[in-house]
Amino acid sequence: MLTNEDGKSAVTLARRAIETYLETGEMIDPSELDLSSIFKEKRGVFVTLKKDGDLRGCIGHPYPDSQLDSAIIDSSISAATRDPRFPPVELPEMNAITLEVTVLSQPELVDVSPEELPEYVEVGKHGLIAKKGYSQGLLLPQVATEQGFDSSEFLSHTCLKAGLSPDEWKKGAQIYCFEGQIFTENTPDGDVSEEDFERACR
């Protein structure tokens, strides 16, 4: 998991990535910041922009397919300029926008019998990935809480997200768990604190 200092660095990187891109059209070089070694690990991440308390953009890498620093840069710029729900952010707007960076832990295979899976999965804490063959699907932890799923329902809906039958977790689908951390600016470009993961963007 990230330390508070890592979290502050993640949010600083996100803001600089957006502002640099909006001003110059260039991607920021993460080596310009003094980042810890965790930023070289492959992690899933979401970046959320909010303006006056309302969502202004949210895009991420749900899977650990890139180094954390690169994933933050890509997600930040995408959230600001490529979220189809909103017009692209303009540079002056950044003075009124707060940023949230949600970092996902490395998914770990749950190595228990299917009968034990519902007891292992903690609703509100764990996100899930279901895999079988070439099919895979992911649901973030807050989905179960927002939808009122119990652990069995959460497993079933994760299988559905993967394009599998809802009871595939009982029939050999691999189930992976992960957790997450949200680091958010309290005010635009202000102090950063860690928040409850259930507030993350879906």
What would you say this structure looks like, in words?
This is Protein Metev_1918. Pfam families: AMMECR1 (PF01871). The radius of gyration is 18 Å and the shape is elongated. It has a five-stranded antiparallel β-sheet with strand order 2-1-3-8-9, covered by helices on one side. It has a four-stranded antiparallel β-sheet with strand order 4-7-5-6. The mean pLDDT is about 90. About 30% of the residues lie in helices and about 25% in strands. β8 and β9 (about 190-195) form a beta hairpin. It folds into two domains: about 5-105 and about 180-200, Hypothetical protein ph0010, domain 1 (Glycoprotein, Type 4 Pilin), CATH 3.30.700; about 110-180, Hypothetical protein ph0010, domain 2 (Dna Ligase, domain 1). The chain has about 200 residues and is an alpha+beta fold.
Termini Cα gap: 20 Å
Secondary structure tally: strands: 9
What is the general shape?
Answer: elongated
What is the CATH topology assignment of the largest domain? Glycoprotein, Type 4 Pilin
Which CATH-level-2 architecture of the largest domain?
Answer: 2-Layer Sandwich
Nearest-integer average pLDDT: 92
Pfam families: AMMECR1
Organism: Methanohalobium evestigatum (strain ATCC BAA-1072 / DSM 3721 / NBRC 107634 / OCM 161 / Z-7303)
InterPro entries: AMMECR1, AMMECR1_dom_sf, AMMECR1_domain, AMMECR1_N, AmmeMemoSam_A, Uncharacterised_MJ0810
Protein name: Protein Metev_1918
